[in-house]
Amino acid sequence: MYDFGNEVVHFLQEISYTWAALLFLIENLLIFTCSVYVGNLLSIRYAHRRIVPTPPKIEAKEILFATSTIFLNTVVTLLGLWLWRTGSIQFRGDIGIFALLDILILLLVMDAGMYLLHRIAHIPLVYRFAHRTHHRYDKPRPLTLFVLNPLEALGFGTLWLLVLCVYDFSWIGMSIYLGLNVVFGTIGHLGVEPLSEKWLRSNLFNTLTTSTFHAMHHQNEDYNFGFYTSIWDRMFGTLYPEDSRNQN
Prior knowledge:
mainly alpha; 11 helices
């Protein structure tokens, strides 16, 4: 694993920005395809547990916004490569316990940062120019994860790069976090709930966000702003009442 990591680092140091852009575009297309494909499979498998009305036929605008998000995610990744090459971003090569700790740190820090950005996005002026695009599709489906206004996509990308500039994470911890980020995003936009009521009421899934958790935000925009956990919603009083049943 360590040797493989060194090979990847060497490859990224040598590849031209043109080829890197193509590589990152393919990477983001694969992430998009896997997320939507697996999400659709889950939506079909658990169609009997639908938590929002069935969404209408996909509009051309949804495809356009999703395409824009894929492109901008590629730009953010390319900018991250440049920041790494110029020394603004640095990664550690260890794969031990501290690398695993990086995953937890990233989840909590990014959850806090994205909660803050999400609250800002709901300020009327900001909402009108950016976040309203995502909420226009209030019956989420897997594609909805990528249906973002370009300003919003760049906002989250900028937050990610700023966090990487502040702290030197391990490459393996960062990679696992990015995978979990896609998993949480996909689950949040299924439109169905794969978890049983018993699991939803458990302490674990009463803290982590679920499909139901984020669907409630799409249905009631004043609640459930968290991305990975309900910690910040509990702390600032924005947890949807039905999701607070186990907090005592």
